[in-house]
Amino acid sequence: MAPILRIEGLNAGYGRLRVLFDISFSVDEREILAIVGPNGSGKSTLLKSIFGLTNIYSGKVIFNGEDITGIKPHIIARKGLVYLPQVENVFSKLTVRENLLMAGYKLPKQELKQKIESVLELLPVLRKYMDNKAFQLSGGERQMLALAMALMGEPKLIMLDEPSTGLAPKISNYIFERIKKLRDMGITVLIVEQNAMKALKMADRALLLAAGKKIFEGECNALLSRKDLVKLYLGLEVSPSKAAEASA
Ligand SMILES: Nc1ncnc2c1ncn2[C@@H]1O[C@H](COP(=O)(O)OP(=O)(O)OP(=O)(O)O)[C@@H](O)[C@H]1O
Ligand SMILES: [Mg+2]
After folding, report:
1. 0.90 cut: is pTM over it?
2. Within 13 A of 56's CA, how many CA atoms are on the CB side?
3. Which of 36, 37, 145, 201 is most buried, by the most CB atoms less than 10 A from its CB?
């Protein structure tokens, strides 16, 4: 299968500050790729670079066979690649319903209703808050709304930056379950996650970054079996049983 996303020799950063160094990797369709690494290693910068929000000095971003290097975010989104930033990802003064309508503005009216319905089937928690303003939602509910909004655009690939950070374990587990469903719906997922163990248990493959460089790319189990890497970069002590659990 041809990869849906391919990054080739990417060097990127902010103005003169270079953050990413020669990053290459690829993601297959319907795959969940977890991007892990220490704070400040460039995980968010990588997602932003793919979405056209940083300065790219050299290298390529190929999405669905098309070179999208450095093109404008709204054009990338229209091609079916969406990005959920780490913070500020909903319109807080609008209601849940209005947020969803905004996110689906390009759909014809009849389809819009159906699309909202199908998104609510995936995230039923939002149903009771349809007429509440987004700022009245809890952190977890707001993340679900952000995810719902991203889905309104019918993406082929979705990039999530720490969707569960700051949430209670039960809610973050719920969000993780929903993310796995996205894969079943045929959507490819790139997820940056602070809780590396959790991400490696959910994802198919992993990309480990440190100081802006790729340290590892491969199956999550293969990374978990590299005890040197997971201890040094992720602070994890993996016991054999944990690794087996992760592969289950
Ligand atoms: N808008 C920006 N302008 C300038 N430098 C930035 C900007 N955003 C991030 N950086 C710098 O780029 C480097 C990588 O940051 P980035 O946010 O990509 O790391 P991260 O791996 O996502 O970290 P965290 O796990 O804390 O979210 C850091 O040194 C950071 O200070
Ligand atoms: Mg980050």
Report:
1. yes
2. 23
3. 36
